[in-house]
Specification:
Chain lengths: 169, 169
């Protein structure tokens, strides 16, 4: 059985070394907090204004300012800064926290489309950092698609079991 | 509704500031790779020899050497060292990766019992680092108990939905 990592690499086209090249330099020290706040604000402005209703609706139950804070605090923590996210919300637990959302391949590509646009429009981020971040985001997006499929597997097993009970009684 | 972090804090008795005090110093630089390998080896020797069969059986389908490597690579990565875990396996995704296991409060306490013994028997770790690590482990163990309950909630909703379908047909 393919691991989460293998699926993420195959589906994203980004191998783990490229995905985690974000750890070669401390991007938080290089870019600073405000750059991450700006990036997440730019990204979520695009998401909440998306003309594609199916994608926009995924975020309908979340306040934009919360989505922005959750995202930049995670990025800061993961890219060498203080553990802002964990101090406030605990472990990132990326797959579990995405359980409520349908993280399909199509949704991953749409997320990446907006993030690529946000990165391209950012004047605070050098091109090497942009490449590293985009590889990390692309691999992570498809890691979450793989995580989403796990969820479906588990549910169907649980429901088979539940369905078999009444028949046995 | 209580968040994962709030549940972890309440159930473990460890507040987030104490849990994430591991980030105040770079424990990997302070302790070194071999200390983490020794700790995880010591811990899993205890787990795989546990006289409590219900706890030992949770690990029955995992090879001890894999369990040791997964654990110390995660600890190294989380405590300031190179991202060994993510390069090999992807994001920690702690809750999702514990889905196959029954992470009850009782299991969390048993895990912590063995980890406390392993830490106490370690001569490579100073007492301040031991305190920080134990607070982190205790908070994390109950964070996973909270994550385990999420899994059950989701299943019951999914199964209710599945069960209602045949009735409607």
């Amino acid at each position: 059985m393919q691991s989460l990592q293998e699926k993420a690499s195959e589906w994203s086209g980004v191998n783990p070394n490229d995905a985690f090249a974000i750890d070669e330099t401390n991007l938080y020290q290089k870019l600073g907090l405000q750059t991450f706040i700006n990036l997440s604000t730019n990204f979520y402005n695009r998401v909440y204004d998306d003309e594609e209703e199916w994608f926009r609706s995924i975020f309908a139950n979340s306040k934009k300012e919360d989505a922005i804070q959750n995202q930049y605090e995670f990025f800061v923590q993961r890219m060498g800064g203080p553990p802002l996210y964990s101090q406030r919300r605990g472990h990132p637990a990326l797959i579990a926290r995405h359980r409520p959302f349908p993280v399909t391949r199509q949704a991953a590509e749409r997320w990446l489309h907006h993030m690529q646009q946000a990165l391209e429009s950012s004047t605070d981020i050098d091109s090497d950092s942009k490449t590293k971040m985009l590889n990390f985001f692309r691999h992570t997006a498809f890691f979450l698609v793989a995580g989403d499929e796990l969820k479906n597997q588990k549910q169907s097993i649980a429901c088979k079991h539940a369905a078999s009970k009444p028949a046995a009684v």
